[in-house]
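Encoded backbone
================
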Amino acid sequence: DLGFYGQLKVMSVDPTPMLWLRKETPYLYRWLDHADDASGIDGDWAEGIAPIVENLLRIAGDTYLPFLKANADALEGGLDTFSLEIEGRPYEQGVFKYQAKCLQSLRSDWSDLSADDQDALSSMIGPGSRILMAGS
């Protein structure tokens, strides 16, 4: 959750994405507020992966991972900006070295997983999981 939380929390306080989050994903917006203060929460770990987490992994595979790859490719190619299509819409922005580091870190963590864990996660992430394989 914390990996998603960090990226989404920034969106929840930036006026433009905040309005979209509140309108289109009110439960996610509320989750961000709750995750901001998880003190007082006790209990056992839940077994398995909740369907909502699987949905978030699929969204990351469909949007965030292609975004990270396009940024890294542009940075490697010496470009100042990159563009791609996300959910059927064009998107363009300047390259960020930090986001290339994020992809590098995710790829490193992915390579540390067992083949069984990679397979299990790949089925949830979808085709975007190929981006996590080094050199993809």
The first helix runs from residue 2 to 13. The mean pLDDT is 91. The longest strand covers residues 81-86. The chain has two domains: 1-43, 50-136.
